[in-house]
Amino acid sequence: MLLAVEHLTKVFGKFKAVDDVSFAVGEGEIVALVGPNGAGKTTTIHMLLGLITPTWGSIRLFGKRFEDHREEILQKLNFTSPYMAMPGRLTVGENLKVFARIYNVREAAAKIDALLERFGILHLKNKPVARLSSGESTRVCLCKAFLNDPDLLLFDEPTAYLDPQAALQVREILLDLQARCATTILITSHNMRDVQQMCGRIIFLDRGRVMAIGTPLEVTRKVLNEDRVAPALDEVFIRIAQSRFDETTSN
Amino acid sequence: MKPHRIRAVILRHAYEVSHNGNHLSNMIYWPVVNIVVWGFFTIYLRRGDHLQPGLVNCLLGAVILWGLFNAFQRDMAVGFLDELWSRNLVNLFGSPLSVSEYVTGLIAVNLVKATIGMAAEAVVAWFFYHYNIFPMLPAFVPFILNLALFALAVGIAVTGLIFRYTTKFQTMAWSVAGLLMPLSCVFYPLKSLPGFLQPAAWALPTTHSFEGMREAIERGAFSLSHFEWGLELNVVYFILAALFFRWMFESARARGLLVKLD
After folding, report:
1. What pLDDT is attached to residue B8?
2. A101 contacts chain B (CB < 8 A)
3. Going along chain A, which residue ranges are E strands?
């Protein structure tokens, strides 16, 4: 397994953000971490990146314990997160050059141009990041994520700030790049259409716990407790969010 | 530590300096304004009847060296604040870049910036106030080294505080030097301080640097004891600052603050 998470738990004060989560992701898979707001998706991703220390549990990436091989592991993966931005005064090209150095990318200039062109933003190369729209910034972050040809990509809400057409385009690019490089992707999203189209497996989280793991169809059947013939992740999502809302109001 | 990652940090901050007028102003404008004001003050002093020999040189030397200390410690913290303000921390610390590589890169950038600022002050002092620091530099270098080391320790400690307590502590980047200044005996000898403050002043490497600088100017002698005291204190403060930073950084990671710093 490329990624193996066992009994991962994160407690902030009295609040359990992630509660005994275990899952594994194999090479070349596209797996989604989904769930309503506060389900623990982003905290899990941040623990995988070493940005948050787990309270309990273990993370193994590429067969190695994260705590013992941080730099080696992070060299082989990359990510995007809605919690990040790039220095606004630096141009798109300058920012990517800095990250190319961090990841020790060979022939960085050519690589940067190729990625900017692939994501349709080559014309923005000399523009300061602060002057980009949120959709353009998202694409720059996606370029950064592919700079080091990562074996594992962690995408936290990659299409959150994109209009539907741009989201579709980015989804196609991601799938194309994934198909060509066999990159493993772990993605979090609220967009169930994205998830259904892109992901072979889903890990459904709610209030920090794993509710279901499986293909979109398996998760649909398990959560809705019905013998469906096609996945209906929107319904699954609404059902879980509704049950949480009912529980909160009855309390 | 990988050199390419340290070079990446240097490149990131070099770009920031080239695009950000605040950095240029901190690096050159304020040091020059400072030396101009103090320069005029020394012209006024020279007209007095009871001017102590070497006083003007001591004052201008102190202004230049204190400027170096202030700029170095401030820019360590401000360099980190630049990442925080631009929400770049997640990008950096979710990459293979280590904290020690980041800090090393920042030190390299700030050494260059502080040196440029000091050089600008020295040139202004030389041309306009006939104070030439350059022949004195060999005697000053050990004390400059101690000032830089202490500035680094203070900068690291303040950065640790900002990691843990976020921007609530960001004003420390600009104010710590002010807190240390009265006890550092920048413009007056240690014996001018009240007796009860002298032990506290003695415990600061900055005090030893300025005492040593005054000895070098007034007697033309290198004070080995002030250099050694300063260096030994620096070793202690540097270790404490590094441990404190590690503690604050791990505490911020445990509390999930790295992704929520703003």
Report:
1. 97
2. yes
3. 3-12, 15-25, 30-34, 56-61, 64-65, 77-80, 152-156, 184-188, 201-206, 209-214
